[in-house]
Amino acid sequence: MKTGYTADIGLEVHAELQTKSKMFCACPIVDLTQAEPNTAVCPVCAGMPGSLPVVNQQAVMAGLRVALSLECEVMGTSQFARKNYFYPDLPKGYQISQYEYPLAITGHLPVRTDEGWINVRIRRVHLEEDTAKLTHIQAPNGESHSLVDLNRAGIPLLEIVSEPDMHTINQVRAYTRSLRTLLQYLGVNSGDLEKGVIRFEANVSLRPVGCPDLGTRVEIKNLNSFRIMTGAIAYELERQSILLDAGGVVQQETLGWDEANQVTLSQRSKEEAHDYRYFPEPDLPPLVITPGMMSEARENLPERPDRRFRRYVTDFGLDAYQADLLTDEKAVADFFELTLTSMAQPDPTLGANWILGELFGWMNLSGQSIEEIPVSPRSLAGLLDHLQGNVINAATAKIVFNEMLQTGKEASEIIRDEHLQQVTDQDDLEKLVKRVLTDHPEQVSAFQNGKTGLYHWFFGRVMQESGGRADPIVIRKILDENLKV
Amino acid sequence: MRLQQRKTNSKSRRFLVNRMPDLTQLTISEALTGLRSRDFSSQELTAAYIQRIEELDPKIHAFITLTPELAFEKAGIADQMLAAEDRELPPLLGLPIAVKDVLCLANVRCTCGSKILENFIPPYTASSVSRLLDAGVVPLGKTNTDEFAMGSSTENSAYGPTRNPWNFEHVPGGSSGGSAAAVAGGMAPAALGTDTGGSVRQPCAFCGTTGIKPTYGRVSRYGLIAYGSSLDTAGVIARNAADTALLFQHMAGFDPLDATSVNTPVPTYQLPDSPDLHGLRIGVPDEYFLQGIQPEVESFVKAAVTQLESQGAVPVPISLPYTEYALPVYYIIAPAEASANLARYDGVRFGPRLGTEEGLQEMFKQTRGQLFGSEVKRRIMLGTYALSAGYYEAFYGKAQKVRTLIKEDFIRAFEDVDVIAAPVAPTTAFKFGQHSDDPLAMYLEDIFTLPANLAGIPGLAFPVGYDKNGLPIGMQLMAPPFKEDLLFRVGHAYQLATEWHNKKPSLPTMDNQLK
Q1: Spatial separation of the C-alpha atoms in residues A128 and A141, rounded to whole Å
Q2: Region B96-326+401-514: CATH code
Q3: How far is B197 from chain A (nearest CA, A)?
Q4: Which residues of B form the catalytic set?
Q5: Which residues, numbered 254 to 283 in chain B, qualify as contacts with chain A under a Cβ-Cβ cut-off of 8 Å?
Q6: Any CB–CB contact under 8 A between B142 and chain A?
Q7: Domain boundaries, chain B
Q8: ∠B201-B204-B205 over CA atoms, to 5°?
Q9: What pLDDT shows up at residue A386?
Q10: Which of A54, A344, A432, B373 has a CA positioned 20 to 30 A from the CA of residue B60?
Q11: CA nearest to B230 within chain A
């Protein structure tokens, strides 16, 4: 993009809510990539005549938790509406959504970017139902068919609409990542983009740098992954800047992303523009959020990831990289903090190093998630206590941790059973050092003739003879004295 | 076809039936007593009705689909239960009824009087119907209706109109015309109907039957194929108020499947033994008598009020000033909701798919264009227009506001009166074709029934006289929300003192021909 313009980008994020059942019926929510098509379907989500929707309270509570986390104003009464249009993915011929009266309005999300923090304002958060999934196929005889899978129809979606507060692709990336992390923290969305559980629509406009008024915006619909979304926005920024440079005018229109050709395409002209004919859904009474629901939603609200990040940096003194890795997944951050609180002398840096180093290494290797590993935060704290108390040295600690991960045993148990306690006794170690020096006279004379690198060789021999248990500080002291360095 | 298969069977039954009094003439309480004391079996009662349907329905055409196998199966089960004496029996065990063809009955096709649902077989039963099935009723079949309940004469049924049992040249009213004609013709002791703008009450008035349009939310709408969702109600049509109450008792109540059904207990409907109505205040609204209505309708309804007065009730002149706006408000709100409710009939899953070779849009257009009738298309267009960008506030938004005013009219009125008495329709049953070219004249037939739907209040319609051509005249009583019990009490008291409801049309049945 040319530098003469400021981009203004807003996003609509459609997040599937991980509830037990669909938004308006009792059908289970199945993995759309695994389940046989049209197996999680009932008369309600199939839109059969005479069937009626009933609001899933679990979805409402999930929506409330997101809205509260985004510091939105929750509407005491919101309303479902019918959004009317004809398409085979819409079994009723309308989608039940919220329009005039959404669940919540005016929130915000602080987002950390490479260039610092930005504040993205949230315009509204509302509940709706997903549509069916269409698959377009070509039959062997050349005929083309569209297959409808109603498993997706009626899955609860939370639509989170931002103000056009993002100005670069990096900011868009950071915002969507933060939002996804937040949804995962709240346990309302798996964040598994491969499975289409989060989808995007973007509005993009350009204005000359310094111009206070937003330019004409386009909307890009059906952006079903991070990659596609950022690709489409980048393309659109480029297209608009070239157009404006050439003295052209951006048309307000709805665009789609042509993945094959990597271009945005106009989906419909103004004449064909959809008139969704929204009106209040007569089958559902207004959705009333009671004070009881509000306090229930508040009670289970976790600390927001951005707040946690800041706390790790300011209170714990971690660097941004460490804080970022630790807070990216709630379970990891929880593990970290539980480890700290279980330690006799909490040391955030030590805890962070062990989790990001040894533990992450193990998780990568074994494919286990933090929930699956057999070591609890308390057990890790036990290990770190032994390390801090000089009962074992760092090298031994790694061996012990590895065994803990494999067997699920406690550190103290392994150290006791395998006699791994560090040897710190001055006399014992002095005897050991002297024996090593006596056994290797050639090396001693070589060292004394200037081959000082052999110091590490002596250190290694002593450590080896001690079975790795010798206190390295004490060894060094005795070696120094005996080799007279 | 199903009827054909039954023919030999019912002939053998006919012999049996003829030895006893005509079972189709019994009231519901008489029929239930007879079943309990095993004077006759449910299968015999069912056979009597099926026989009468076979004789009369080719002329009246009250039914779209008959379900004799299902009826005899249910009747057989009922008879077994009745024979096992020491059990607590379902309250309506063995009683045959008819069901309007917009209420789903599992595994029986439900057409809504439309070509587009010609082959639609719902896998579920409407909650209102399933409650009655649990109470032991035997379903005889699905009755005729204007397409998607849009109409006041059954002339809009894609399966042909129903004839009024009182005069075959006249309409039975609508949209529950099939149900009212079935009851009036003695082809069912009671039938279920739906009332969105008067579709239970107006055919009751035209056919001389008694029927309840309940409070919105009193009876579940689950399985009622929607026309105007905020107005649709399911009710009962029977020969008198007592029978209506007996059935309604087991149909009403909260349903978790319908978010608009109301969780208020259903009282046990107690009917008076005497016609005494002392202390009852009956509101008589000016606005329901000023509209140049058929003079006989006005005089007989006023005579009915006088009759109630003679039983101790006190008539109170009242005013419902927003009455005149009910018609335009209804014809914005109901079509608007209908335009969305009927969007699902797009050829993807219902009806024969037309125009598929020419792409998706053509499939939508041709399927809907050819399979919907003209009244349905008219209302879809009206509703689509009323909801369109730029017109929403002026039409739908405004209509909702005026709807509130109409509701408030009734709330104010019910501060001073217990019930409101009014004619059901401005005329008695009109002739076929009389309003066919003038939709507006047809809409005016609903002018007195629409306000109760817009206000969500209950109404009971029953006969209060006959015009010079022998066609029934109906009166409706309206009450505050959830006061159906009051309507049944007043209606029953009136019927204890009068005979209008006992009058029967003379029909060309075999018995009559033999006489």
Answers
A1: 39
A2: 3.90.1300.10
A3: 16
A4: 100, 175, 199
A5: 256-260
A6: no
A7: 96-326+401-514
A8: 90
A9: 86
A10: B373
A11: A282
Question: By percentage, how much of chain B surpasses pLDDT 70?
Answer: 95
Residues of A in contact with B384 (CB under 8 A): 277
As a whole-number percent, the residues of chain A with pLDDT over 70 amount to 98
Judge whether residue B447 has pLDDT over 60: yes
CB B250 within 8 A of CB B215: no
Q: Which domains does chain A have, with CATH numbers?
A: 5-296 (no CATH), 304-417 (no CATH), 426-483 (1.10.10)
Q: Which tens digit of pLDDT belongs to each residue from A191-224?
A: 887 778 899 999 999 999 989 999 999 999 889 8
Nearest to B156 by CA among B115, B212, B192, B104: B115
Tell me what the mean pLDDT of segment A75-83 comes to. Answer: 97
The average pLDDT across B206-229 equals 98
Which residue on chain B is closest to A148 by alpha carbon?
Answer: B348
Dihedral over Cα of B184, B190, B195, B198: its sign: positive
Residue B2 has pLDDT above 50, yes or no: no
Q: What was the pLDDT predicted at B7?
A: 41
User: Three-class SS of residue A219?
Assistant: strand
Tokens read off for A315: 């209170």
Cβ-based neighbour number of residue A453 at 10 Å: 9
Q: Using one digit for the tens of pLDDT, what is the confidence trace for A105-139?
A: 999 999 999 889 999 999 999 999 999 999 988 88
Model confidence, pTM? 0.89
Q: Name the residue facing B259 among A43, A49, A283 (closest C-beta).
A: A283
Q: Helix, strand, or coil here: A112?
A: strand
Q: Which of A52, A95, A272 to mutate to test the interface with B (most CBs of B within 10 A)?
A: A52
Taking only residues 356 to 415 of chain B, the set having a beta carbon closer than 8 angstroms to any beta carbon of chain A reads 360, 364, 384, 387-389, 392, 396
Of residues A264 and B501, the one with the higher pLDDT is B501
Q: Do A50 and B360 touch (CB under 8 A)?
A: no
